[in-house]
Amino acid sequence: MRRAFLLLLPLLLFFAGNSYGVRLTKIGVVDVEAVFNAYPGTADIRQKLKEERDKYQIEIDKKKEELAKMGNDYQANYSRFNEEERQRRQAEVEYKKELLNEFIEETNKKLNALKEELTKPIYLKIQEVIKRVSAEKGFSLVFRKGSDSLLYFNNSEADLDLTKDIVSRISKELSIEQRN
User: Does the model's pTM come out above 0.85?
Assistant: First the structure.
């Protein structure tokens, strides 16, 4: 990820030529998480998510405790049970483990959905502001700080779009391969 960015950076910093002269490609970065944390109301979102997580954790802890009691009871009375009872109790413990794992998985899905629901409007607003500020300041490319995710690309920078050149080169190379 970082390596790809470092390999791409010199090319992006190289002067891009056009028919009217040479100009510099401006590249910027944005720490989206810092912007999100500075956004009004995010503390309330974190608090709501924590409350939901804590509520589910109480249920998970109860289910774990019940499962532990079943397991301890099974172990303590193992020698008293006949083979059929051992298998029944073991199956019951395994079933409860499966239910617990399913509950945890569903809980995580619900928490992720709630997080998405609460944060998506903020991230969309941040993305809009990134686009406006980037365009106003004349940036051609803006990356997410700490990753190689592209947040903004100036579509009017036609000389940065290599699509036609790549398609042409592929066509040329394929036609050469087909001749051989």
Answer: no
Q: Is the CB of residue 141 less than 8 Å from the CB of residue 12? A: yes
**Cβ proximity of 130 and 152 under 8 Å:** yes
Helix axis angle, 83-136 relative to 42-76, nearest 10°? 170
Which residues of the chain fall short of a pLDDT of 70? Answer: 1-23, 157-161, 180
Query: Do residues 27 and 143 touch, judged by C-beta distance below 8 A?
Result: yes
The answer to whether residues 42 and 36 touch, using CB atoms and an 8 Å cutoff, is yes
The CB-based long-range contact list for 146-155 (8 Å cut-off, 24+ gap) reads: 146/31, 147/1, 148/1, 148/2, 148/4, 148/5, 148/8, 151/30, 151/32, 151/127, 152/28
* Domain map (residue ranges) of the chain: 41-134
Residues in CB range of 107: below 8 A, 6 or more apart: 56, 59, 60
- Mind listing the pLDDT tens digit for each residue in 122-160? 999 999 999 999 999 988 889 999 888 998 888 776 566
Structure tokens at 63: 């289910």
Instruction: Give the pair of three-digit tokens for residue 154.
Output: 């100036």
